[in-house]
Design goal:
CATH class of the largest domain: Mainly Beta
Low-confidence stretches: none
Distance between the termini: 58 Å
Largest sheet: 9 strands, parallel
Strand content: 25-35%
Shape: globular
CATH superfamily of the largest domain: Hexapeptide repeat proteins
Radius of gyration: 19 Å
């Protein structure tokens, strides 16, 4: 059966797209060339909170089974998800976003290029996440300083920052570019660029440059000095030039 016959004329699906059984695609959804959509997904869920109609998925996406995306959102090329991911309305994301299994983006968010969200991550509304950010499992980005209220203050995560597992970032906090939030940290205040923040409550304890890799003693940060897996060759070459001695 053709995609047009299965989902109707208001769904635009480009060439070489595969869609699993029992997936629902709502009118106004656009899916880019070469994408793979798993079984039991729901794409373009209609909501009155969407600022624009329809859902736009860029080319070469891989959306695994039981994932749900609301309308009003736009995703660049090479989106990757685990299973049972939920993304609410008005999320704007760049190239090569990775969203791990059981993660939840609550919408009204801006996400840059090459962002990696691991499993069981919760991104509260109004968050802004810069390029090349890593957020590890069970991290929570909050947005309500006096719950319950109608005033949302989203978290901001700067480029190249790393937020380690089971950390919580409180409303309105900015984590600076290249910063490291250690595991199980409660972040209540802004974290300076290239700084380590650890503890409950979180405290800044020094520069990320003080951390070394155990196996060779080389600097662990900036991480792009040594970690290149999954990034385009041109980007890796640029990083190597940046850190050439």
């Amino acid at each position: 059966m053709r995609h047009e016959d299965r989902f109707g004329p208001d769904v635009k699906i480009e060439d070489d797209v595969t869609i699993g059984e029992y997936t629902i695609i709502h009118p106004g959804t656009r899916i880019g060339r070469g994408s793979r959509i798993g079984a039991f997904c729901e794409l373009g869920v209609v909501t009155d909170s969407a600022t624009q109609k329809g859902l736009r998925i860029g080319p070469n996406a891989l959306i695994r089974s039981h994932s749900v995306f609301y309308e009003g959102s736009t995703f660049g090329p090479n989106l990757r998800t685990g299973h049972r991911v939920t993304v609410r309305e008005n999320t704007i994301a760049g190239d090569t976003l990775q969203i791990g299994t059981l993660s939840d983006i609550q919408g009204h968010c801006k996400i840059g290029d090459h962002v990696r969200l691991h499993s069981n991550v919760h991104i509260g509304q109004a968050a802004t996440i810069g390029d090349f950010v890593f957020i590890f499992p069970y991290v929570v980005l909050t947005n309500d300083a006096a719950p319950p209220s109608d005033r949302l203050e989203g978290v901001t995560i700067g480029r190249y920052a790393v937020v380690a597992t089971m950390s919580t970032i409180l409303p309105g906090v900015t984590v600076g570019e290249g910063a490291l939030v250690g595991a199980m940290t409660l972040v209540r205040e802004n974290v300076s660029a290239d700084t380590i923040c650890v503890g409950v409550p979180g405290k800044m304890i020094g520069a990320t440059s003080r951390i070394t890799l155990k196996h060779n003693g080389q600097p662990a940060y900036p991480w792009r000095r040594h970690f290149h897996r999954g990034y385009p060759e041109s980007m890796v070459a640029e990083w190597k030039r940046e850190f050439a001695e």
